[in-house]
Amino acid sequence: MAITIRYTKPTLIRKDMDAVLQTMVDEKIGPGEKRREFIKLFALYIDKKDGIAVRSYVDAITYSIQALKLEENSTIAISLFAPRVYEYVIKKLGYNIFLTDSDEYSQPKIEDVQRAIIENNVKALIVFSPLGSLYRNVDDYKELSIPIIEDVSESLASEFEEVKAGSLGDIVICQFEEDGIISTAGGAIAVSRSQEIIDSLKKETEKIRKYTDLPDMNASLGIMQLQKLDSTIARRREIFNAFYQSLIKGEGKPFLTGNKNFLANGYTFPVVIENMMDEALQFSEKMGIEVKKSFTSTIGYKYLDRFDLYPNSVGPLSRCISFPLYPLLKSTDVDTIEKVLRHIS
Fold first, then answer.
1. In what order do the strands lie in the sheet with 159-160?
2. pLDDT tens, 120-133?
3. pTM
Protein backbone atom coordinates (compact mmCIF):
# COMPACT_ATOMS: atom_id res chain seq x y z
CA MET A 1 0.00 0.00 0.00
CA ALA A 2 1.28 3.48 -0.85
CA ILE A 3 2.15 5.82 1.99
CA THR A 4 -0.87 8.07 2.64
CA ILE A 5 0.06 9.39 6.09
CA ARG A 6 3.34 11.28 5.96
CA TYR A 7 5.66 11.16 8.96
CA THR A 8 5.80 14.93 9.28
CA LYS A 9 3.99 17.92 7.89
CA PRO A 10 4.55 21.58 8.87
CA THR A 11 1.59 23.23 10.59
CA LEU A 12 1.02 25.96 8.02
CA ILE A 13 -2.26 27.76 7.44
CA ARG A 14 -3.28 30.61 5.15
CA LYS A 15 -2.48 33.31 7.74
CA ASP A 16 1.10 32.03 7.97
CA MET A 17 1.48 32.31 4.21
CA ASP A 18 -0.10 35.78 4.21
CA ALA A 19 2.48 36.94 6.79
CA VAL A 20 5.31 35.83 4.52
CA LEU A 21 3.63 37.46 1.52
CA GLN A 22 3.34 40.73 3.44
CA THR A 23 7.09 40.87 4.03
CA MET A 24 7.58 40.44 0.30
CA VAL A 25 5.08 43.21 -0.44
CA ASP A 26 6.89 45.45 2.05
CA GLU A 27 10.15 44.57 0.30
CA LYS A 28 11.73 43.68 3.65
CA ILE A 29 12.66 40.05 3.30
CA GLY A 30 16.18 40.25 4.78
CA PRO A 31 17.08 40.46 8.50
CA GLY A 32 15.24 43.31 10.19
CA GLU A 33 12.40 44.18 12.57
CA LYS A 34 10.53 40.88 12.16
CA ARG A 35 13.64 38.96 13.22
CA ARG A 36 14.00 41.11 16.34
CA GLU A 37 10.28 40.71 17.13
CA PHE A 38 10.51 36.95 16.76
CA ILE A 39 13.49 36.76 19.13
CA LYS A 40 11.67 38.82 21.76
CA LEU A 41 8.48 36.77 21.50
CA PHE A 42 10.29 33.44 21.68
CA ALA A 43 12.45 34.58 24.59
CA LEU A 44 9.33 35.73 26.45
CA TYR A 45 7.60 32.39 25.80
CA ILE A 46 10.33 30.48 27.65
CA ASP A 47 11.07 33.19 30.22
CA LYS A 48 14.33 34.39 28.72
CA LYS A 49 15.43 37.92 27.80
CA ASP A 50 17.05 38.14 24.37
CA GLY A 51 19.41 36.41 21.98
CA ILE A 52 20.04 35.70 18.32
CA ALA A 53 18.10 34.11 15.46
CA VAL A 54 20.27 32.61 12.73
CA ARG A 55 19.88 30.78 9.45
CA SER A 56 21.16 27.40 10.55
CA TYR A 57 21.03 25.03 13.50
CA VAL A 58 24.79 24.54 13.22
CA ASP A 59 25.32 28.29 13.64
CA ALA A 60 23.11 28.43 16.73
CA ILE A 61 25.01 25.57 18.36
CA THR A 62 28.40 27.00 17.39
CA TYR A 63 27.71 30.52 18.68
CA SER A 64 26.15 29.17 21.88
CA ILE A 65 29.19 27.06 22.76
CA GLN A 66 31.55 29.91 21.87
CA ALA A 67 29.53 32.29 24.08
CA LEU A 68 30.39 30.14 27.13
CA LYS A 69 34.07 31.07 26.69
CA LEU A 70 35.34 27.70 27.89
CA GLU A 71 38.99 27.04 28.56
CA GLU A 72 41.07 25.33 25.88
CA ASN A 73 40.80 21.51 25.98
CA SER A 74 37.65 21.66 28.10
CA THR A 75 35.21 18.78 27.94
CA ILE A 76 31.48 19.14 27.28
CA ALA A 77 29.07 16.53 28.62
CA ILE A 78 26.12 15.48 26.47
CA SER A 79 23.76 12.53 26.34
CA LEU A 80 23.61 9.91 23.60
CA PHE A 81 20.14 11.12 22.59
CA ALA A 82 21.45 14.43 21.21
CA PRO A 83 21.72 14.90 17.43
CA ARG A 84 25.07 14.05 15.83
CA VAL A 85 25.48 17.66 14.75
CA TYR A 86 26.54 18.43 18.32
CA GLU A 87 29.42 16.00 18.08
CA TYR A 88 30.50 17.66 14.83
CA VAL A 89 30.42 21.19 16.28
CA ILE A 90 32.08 20.34 19.58
CA LYS A 91 34.98 18.62 17.86
CA LYS A 92 35.30 21.39 15.24
CA LEU A 93 35.63 23.93 18.05
CA GLY A 94 38.44 21.88 19.59
CA TYR A 95 36.64 20.67 22.69
CA ASN A 96 36.34 17.13 24.04
CA ILE A 97 33.10 15.18 24.49
CA PHE A 98 31.95 13.17 27.48
CA LEU A 99 28.92 11.00 26.71
CA THR A 100 26.54 10.42 29.60
CA ASP A 101 24.10 7.60 30.07
CA SER A 102 20.47 8.65 30.50
CA ASP A 103 18.15 8.56 33.48
CA GLU A 104 14.62 7.13 33.36
CA TYR A 105 13.38 10.30 31.64
CA SER A 106 15.96 10.16 28.83
CA GLN A 107 17.93 13.05 30.32
CA PRO A 108 21.67 13.16 31.08
CA LYS A 109 22.31 11.06 34.17
CA ILE A 110 23.27 13.41 36.99
CA GLU A 111 25.67 10.94 38.61
CA ASP A 112 27.60 10.53 35.36
CA VAL A 113 27.99 14.28 34.97
CA GLN A 114 29.02 14.77 38.60
CA ARG A 115 31.76 12.16 38.24
CA ALA A 116 32.91 13.56 34.90
CA ILE A 117 33.27 17.08 36.32
CA ILE A 118 35.86 15.69 38.72
CA GLU A 119 37.52 13.06 36.53
CA ASN A 120 37.13 14.32 32.94
CA ASN A 121 37.48 18.11 33.10
CA VAL A 122 33.82 18.66 32.16
CA LYS A 123 33.14 22.40 32.04
CA ALA A 124 29.68 22.54 30.45
CA LEU A 125 26.60 20.38 29.93
CA ILE A 126 24.28 20.14 26.93
CA VAL A 127 20.76 18.93 27.71
CA PHE A 128 18.78 17.72 24.70
CA SER A 129 15.33 16.41 25.59
CA PRO A 130 14.30 13.95 22.85
CA LEU A 131 10.84 13.42 21.36
CA GLY A 132 8.95 15.66 23.78
CA SER A 133 10.56 14.32 26.96
CA LEU A 134 11.54 16.58 29.85
CA TYR A 135 13.73 16.60 32.97
CA ARG A 136 11.99 16.63 36.33
CA ASN A 137 14.22 18.55 38.74
CA VAL A 138 15.96 21.73 37.64
CA ASP A 139 17.77 22.13 40.97
CA ASP A 140 19.71 18.85 40.58
CA TYR A 141 21.29 20.13 37.37
CA LYS A 142 21.85 23.66 38.68
CA GLU A 143 23.81 22.21 41.62
CA LEU A 144 26.40 20.96 39.14
CA SER A 145 27.59 24.58 38.98
CA ILE A 146 28.59 24.44 35.32
CA PRO A 147 26.94 26.32 32.41
CA ILE A 148 24.12 24.47 30.66
CA ILE A 149 22.99 24.71 27.06
CA GLU A 150 19.45 23.39 26.74
CA ASP A 151 18.06 22.36 23.36
CA VAL A 152 14.24 22.49 23.21
CA SER A 153 13.93 21.63 19.52
CA GLU A 154 11.89 18.53 20.35
CA SER A 155 10.65 19.47 23.84
CA LEU A 156 9.31 23.01 23.37
CA ALA A 157 6.08 23.39 25.41
CA SER A 158 6.47 20.09 27.31
CA GLU A 159 5.73 20.52 31.01
CA PHE A 160 6.09 18.66 34.30
CA GLU A 161 4.20 20.34 37.13
CA GLU A 162 5.85 23.79 37.41
CA VAL A 163 8.80 22.85 35.18
CA LYS A 164 8.67 23.86 31.53
CA ALA A 165 11.04 23.19 28.66
CA GLY A 166 13.56 26.01 28.62
CA SER A 167 13.67 26.37 32.40
CA LEU A 168 17.09 24.79 32.74
CA GLY A 169 19.45 26.33 30.21
CA ASP A 170 21.75 29.28 30.67
CA ILE A 171 21.40 29.30 26.89
CA VAL A 172 18.36 27.78 25.19
CA ILE A 173 18.52 26.63 21.56
CA CYS A 174 15.64 25.71 19.26
CA GLN A 175 15.77 24.79 15.59
CA PHE A 176 12.90 25.59 13.21
CA GLU A 177 13.17 23.03 10.43
CA GLU A 178 10.20 21.55 8.60
CA ASP A 179 9.58 18.95 11.31
CA GLY A 180 9.78 21.42 14.19
CA ILE A 181 7.07 22.38 16.67
CA ILE A 182 7.60 25.81 15.10
CA SER A 183 8.85 25.93 11.53
CA THR A 184 10.35 28.93 9.78
CA ALA A 185 11.47 26.74 6.87
CA GLY A 186 14.89 26.54 8.48
CA GLY A 187 16.93 28.46 10.98
CA ALA A 188 17.39 28.39 14.75
CA ILE A 189 17.45 30.60 17.81
CA ALA A 190 19.65 30.91 20.90
CA VAL A 191 18.36 32.94 23.86
CA SER A 192 19.38 33.60 27.44
CA ARG A 193 18.44 35.52 30.57
CA SER A 194 22.04 36.55 31.25
CA GLN A 195 23.02 39.87 29.70
CA GLU A 196 26.65 38.76 29.62
CA ILE A 197 25.75 35.69 27.57
CA ILE A 198 23.41 37.70 25.32
CA ASP A 199 26.21 40.15 24.61
CA SER A 200 28.55 37.25 23.85
CA LEU A 201 26.05 35.66 21.47
CA LYS A 202 25.57 38.92 19.59
CA LYS A 203 29.29 39.58 19.46
CA GLU A 204 29.89 36.19 17.85
CA THR A 205 27.61 37.14 14.94
CA GLU A 206 28.42 40.83 14.71
CA LYS A 207 30.93 40.79 11.83
CA ILE A 208 28.99 38.38 9.62
CA ARG A 209 25.38 39.18 10.51
CA LYS A 210 24.44 39.84 6.91
CA TYR A 211 25.10 36.18 6.14
CA THR A 212 23.96 34.54 9.39
CA ASP A 213 20.91 36.42 10.73
CA LEU A 214 17.49 34.89 10.11
CA PRO A 215 15.69 36.78 7.33
CA ASP A 216 12.44 38.61 8.12
CA MET A 217 10.58 36.43 5.64
CA ASN A 218 11.35 33.38 7.79
CA ALA A 219 10.88 35.25 11.06
CA SER A 220 7.38 36.39 10.04
CA LEU A 221 6.43 32.75 9.62
CA GLY A 222 7.81 32.00 13.08
CA ILE A 223 5.89 34.88 14.65
CA MET A 224 2.58 33.60 13.31
CA GLN A 225 3.26 30.07 14.52
CA LEU A 226 4.40 31.27 17.92
CA GLN A 227 1.22 33.30 18.34
CA LYS A 228 -0.94 30.20 17.78
CA LEU A 229 1.40 27.81 19.62
CA ASP A 230 -0.95 27.19 22.55
CA SER A 231 -3.72 25.93 20.27
CA THR A 232 -1.23 23.92 18.22
CA ILE A 233 0.10 22.22 21.35
CA ALA A 234 -3.43 21.56 22.62
CA ARG A 235 -4.24 19.70 19.40
CA ARG A 236 -0.96 17.79 19.53
CA ARG A 237 -1.68 16.73 23.12
CA GLU A 238 -5.18 15.64 22.21
CA ILE A 239 -3.82 13.33 19.52
CA PHE A 240 -0.95 12.18 21.77
CA ASN A 241 -3.38 11.14 24.51
CA ALA A 242 -5.55 9.23 22.02
CA PHE A 243 -2.48 7.38 20.72
CA TYR A 244 -1.26 6.68 24.26
CA GLN A 245 -4.56 5.09 25.27
CA SER A 246 -4.62 2.92 22.15
CA LEU A 247 -1.05 1.79 22.72
CA ILE A 248 -1.48 0.72 26.33
CA LYS A 249 -4.73 -1.07 25.48
CA GLY A 250 -2.68 -3.21 23.14
CA GLU A 251 0.01 -3.64 25.81
CA GLY A 252 2.53 -1.61 23.84
CA LYS A 253 5.34 0.24 25.61
CA PRO A 254 5.47 4.04 25.28
CA PHE A 255 8.83 5.83 25.20
CA LEU A 256 7.43 8.64 27.33
CA THR A 257 6.43 7.47 30.80
CA GLY A 258 2.81 8.13 31.62
CA ASN A 259 2.31 10.59 34.47
CA LYS A 260 -0.68 12.80 35.16
CA ASN A 261 1.70 15.66 36.01
CA PHE A 262 3.61 15.38 32.72
CA LEU A 263 2.29 17.13 29.64
CA ALA A 264 4.11 16.03 26.50
CA ASN A 265 4.15 18.52 23.63
CA GLY A 266 3.13 15.91 21.05
CA TYR A 267 6.25 16.38 18.95
CA THR A 268 5.82 12.81 17.72
CA PHE A 269 4.54 9.53 19.16
CA PRO A 270 7.46 7.26 20.08
CA VAL A 271 7.02 3.58 20.92
CA VAL A 272 9.56 1.11 22.28
CA ILE A 273 9.36 -2.18 20.39
CA GLU A 274 10.54 -5.06 22.56
CA ASN A 275 10.84 -7.46 19.64
CA MET A 276 10.08 -7.77 15.92
CA MET A 277 10.76 -4.12 15.07
CA ASP A 278 10.95 -4.85 11.34
CA GLU A 279 7.53 -6.45 11.48
CA ALA A 280 6.09 -3.39 13.22
CA LEU A 281 7.59 -1.11 10.58
CA GLN A 282 6.30 -3.30 7.76
CA PHE A 283 2.82 -3.50 9.27
CA SER A 284 2.69 0.28 9.61
CA GLU A 285 3.80 0.74 6.01
CA LYS A 286 1.18 -1.77 4.89
CA MET A 287 -1.42 0.45 6.57
CA GLY A 288 -0.08 3.45 4.66
CA ILE A 289 1.72 5.06 7.62
CA GLU A 290 5.24 6.45 7.32
CA VAL A 291 7.00 5.40 10.54
CA LYS A 292 10.68 5.93 11.37
CA LYS A 293 13.29 4.59 13.71
CA SER A 294 13.54 7.36 16.27
CA PHE A 295 17.24 7.78 16.89
CA THR A 296 19.22 7.05 13.73
CA SER A 297 20.55 10.64 13.65
CA THR A 298 21.72 10.74 17.26
CA ILE A 299 25.23 10.60 18.72
CA GLY A 300 24.36 7.35 20.45
CA TYR A 301 23.24 5.36 17.43
CA LYS A 302 26.80 4.18 16.80
CA TYR A 303 27.11 2.94 20.38
CA LEU A 304 24.33 0.37 20.36
CA ASP A 305 26.86 -2.35 21.23
CA ARG A 306 28.00 -0.52 24.39
CA PHE A 307 25.39 -1.69 26.86
CA ASP A 308 28.23 -1.96 29.38
CA LEU A 309 28.76 1.82 29.30
CA TYR A 310 25.24 3.07 28.61
CA PRO A 311 22.75 0.50 29.97
CA ASN A 312 19.85 2.97 30.26
CA SER A 313 20.27 4.47 26.80
CA VAL A 314 21.06 1.57 24.47
CA GLY A 315 17.63 -0.08 24.77
CA PRO A 316 15.52 2.92 23.71
CA LEU A 317 18.10 4.00 21.13
CA SER A 318 17.91 0.65 19.38
CA ARG A 319 14.23 -0.23 19.82
CA CYS A 320 12.24 2.99 19.50
CA ILE A 321 10.11 3.92 16.49
CA SER A 322 8.10 7.12 16.00
CA PHE A 323 4.63 7.55 14.53
CA PRO A 324 3.32 10.68 12.80
CA LEU A 325 1.78 13.27 15.10
CA TYR A 326 0.90 16.77 13.94
CA PRO A 327 -2.21 18.99 14.03
CA LEU A 328 -3.00 18.54 10.34
CA LEU A 329 -3.63 14.80 10.72
CA LYS A 330 -7.13 14.00 9.54
CA SER A 331 -9.48 12.12 11.86
CA THR A 332 -9.30 9.11 9.56
CA ASP A 333 -5.49 9.23 9.80
CA VAL A 334 -5.69 9.30 13.60
CA ASP A 335 -8.04 6.30 13.55
CA THR A 336 -5.66 4.35 11.30
CA ILE A 337 -2.65 5.03 13.51
CA GLU A 338 -4.63 4.09 16.63
CA LYS A 339 -5.54 0.80 15.01
CA VAL A 340 -1.86 0.01 14.35
CA LEU A 341 -0.84 1.02 17.88
CA ARG A 342 -3.34 -1.42 19.37
CA HIS A 343 -1.72 -4.25 17.45
CA ILE A 344 1.97 -3.72 18.19
CA SER A 345 3.90 -4.52 21.36
1. 163-164, 159-160, 262-263
2. 999 999 999 999 99
3. 0.94
